[in-house]
UniProtKB/TrEMBL annotation:
The lineage of its organism: Eukaryota, Metazoa, Chordata, Craniata, Vertebrata. One of its GO terms (biological process) is ceramide metabolic process. InterPro entries: ATP-NAD_kinase_N (IPR017438), CERK_C (IPR045363), CERK_PH (IPR057465), Diacylglycerol_kinase_cat_dom (IPR001206), Lipid_Phosphate_FormReg (IPR050187), NAD/diacylglycerol_kinase_sf (IPR016064). PANTHER family: CERAMIDE KINASE, SPHINGOSINE KINASE. It comes from Nothobranchius furzeri. This is Ceramide kinase.
Amino acid sequence: VFHLREPSAPWGGGWLWRPGCFPGVPEWRWGSLPPPSHHSPPPGALWICCRVERTNILKRKFLTLLFVKTKWRLCCVSVSYVERCQQHRWRCAAVTFTCPDGGLCQSWVGAIAEQLAAITSRPRRLLIYINPYGGKRQGGRVYEQKVAPLFAQAAISTHVIVTEHANHARDHLRTDAELKKYDGVVCVGGDGMFSEIVHGLIWRTQMDSSLDPNSPDETLTSCSLRIGIIPAGSTDCICFATVGTNDPVTSALHIIVGDSQPMDVCSIHHNNTFLRYSVSLLGYGFYGDVLTDSERKRWMGPVRYDFSGLKMFLTHHYYEGTVSYLPARGVVGTPRDAARCRSGCVVCQHNGPKPSERAEKYETDDCGETIRGKFLAINAASMSCACPRSPKGLSPAAHLADGTTDLILVRKCSRFDFLRHLLRHTNKEDQFDLNFVEVHRVVRFRFMPRHCQSDSDLELDLLENGKRQIFGQICRDHPACGCAPAYSSWNCDGEILTHTAIDVRVHCRLIKLFARGIEEPQVFEDLTNPCAI
Ligand SMILES: Nc1ncnc2c1ncn2[C@@H]1O[C@H](COP(=O)(O)OP(=O)(O)OP(=O)(O)O)[C@@H](O)[C@H]1O
């Protein structure tokens, strides 16, 4: 919060107050009296902007004419601020103050600049990666037209790299990028591009801390640089889940105001070898099969997901295996809660990293649970995975930064029942309230498919002979026809994992985003107060 006092300001200047800043100030106020000295600003108040009664156009013209005629020099101070719009969108707005005294204008500008410089959470230098081929191939245009002008206005210096091939950004971050020069890394693209940044940054941080990412028991070091996502992909789920909308301008403004949203990351290992990191969905069975099938149909465009979804639903494959997991203990919240993870989430704050993480001493035999069975789907949701198509998401009450993931097991059931379960993702009914579905909040889990004697042998065969053939060979339930595969694939945030036997561990708050989580709707819907940030 800041207050500027200039009794001689010709527009009747004095104190500029933000609504709610002090008791009894319900709206923007431009007054001549200072705020009562015994009131201190509320903690965490963030204020760079101002709003005054709008003078009508005629009045403004009259003022201008008056000054011109008397040959006074008319100076302007324009103050930009963020205004909330509907559906979690933010827009940049501005108020212009005019005054004939250049020195006075300068002192206002100086005072505002001083206040802004004092906010250390705002980034000053950003490293930006643009995927020119993401989504509708509009990444470059989106950045140039919508984002770069805002960064320039906010005096943020940028180093822009347009990627030339897949994994360009990841590899650059791992080895070449001079990270000390930057306050954050921004990706312009979709979830795949975000995943590249996450992999590059986490890897680099562990290398700099001399940690071994191949060890599943290693306690990883959190990344200090925040990540910004300018959505320009085809789905942009992570942006939607952390900001509430897929809008490049809104994301740019969250970066400019220096928001910070911690996020859990799952590490996935196979036989003490690191495979990947996951921040949203890990899915075996149905979601793995849909992804595998849709990858073969890229030529169909986005409709391939609907096609493969329908096909896999009709195919109705189930998979046998053993899931062992370590339940989250001593945490508040369950996967069946009605409350959602929102901006300033109390569950995330309560369940944050503990000084002695029990999960780090994972012994399945001692404290883990084991479930054997036939599953249509095994999913681990580290966030709700809400998207425009499934507004509730796969696990509506999952949290972004509570150090857990929701393990959802869908056992073998009829097609009709499975359809009921799937449809409940799109309506108000509880998708977990079915006797063939169970959900557990866990900090670590392992999956071992039945028939899996040596998963690395399987991996080699998969690569050499192609999936269909090996599935035919290992199909023991249908030895005669060889039609039903014994193995599915893991869908890891939209990428296919080549191994089926995996060990997954949640790392609490391993990364931070330039976001603040989805804000409660009432903040947005109260548009009578165009609350500025
Ligand atoms: N210059 C490039 N040429 C080809 N591929 C690239 C390039 N830069 C990045 N990629 C790869 O393209 C993949 C897809 O990109 P991105 O995630 O940006 O878009 P998308 O797939 O359309 O969106 P979404 O992942 O949200 O569905 C990423 O996995 C990334 O590794």
